[in-house]
Amino acid sequence: MNSCEYIVLHHSASTQRIDQFSSINAYHKRQGFPLSHRGFYVGYHYVIEKNGHVCIAREDDETGSHTVSMWPPYWDMNRRGIGICLAGDFTKEAVSLEQLQSLRELVDELRAKHGIPLEKVILHRQAKSTSCPGVDLVYLMESMTGTKPSQPLPFKVQLAQVVKAIARYLSRQRTPTEDARLRQLERKEDRLEVLIEEEK
Hints:
With 200 residues, this protein is an alpha/beta fold. It folds into two domains: 6-142, Peptidoglycan recognition protein-like (Lysozyme-like, 3-Layer(aba) Sandwich); 155-199. It has seven helices and five strands, in the order E-H-E-E-H-E-H-E-H-H-H-H. It has a five-stranded mixed beta sheet with strand order 3-2-4-1-5.
């Protein structure tokens, strides 16, 4: 059972253009993920395709297979969190407007249904050492106004957010290898900020 205390946001890390739900289902089946009540092996509860179509893989109260938590308070997220995956690799491409619109509507619906506060809508990387979902989907979702999403941040700005997030993580406690990696990230961040300024 899933207590539905959190919503965990993911990306698929795939640039495939269409029907990622079927690809994810086949991959998760090969990985031995449990079959859902809806007849799918997808570990997420929902998948949002690039055109904004929402695919339902699991009932909200079913145990998921989307987040192996590494630190508190995000332990056991598969039994405490609803997993939403957006199709795409947001370290290489931007989130579509249609996806952001569908994400906001779905998150609003789930929060109202299960009484989930906004601070418990988290990114996968908050619960595990990973770059997923690439960009800050909560920020992008909350930056939308009215009934239609505003233009999402440029890809270079989204990428800069990823670099900063990784740099913050590595700055906690570092080995010599991580120190070198952090310096590389800081140089990349400086270059991205220059490019962003040039585009303004």
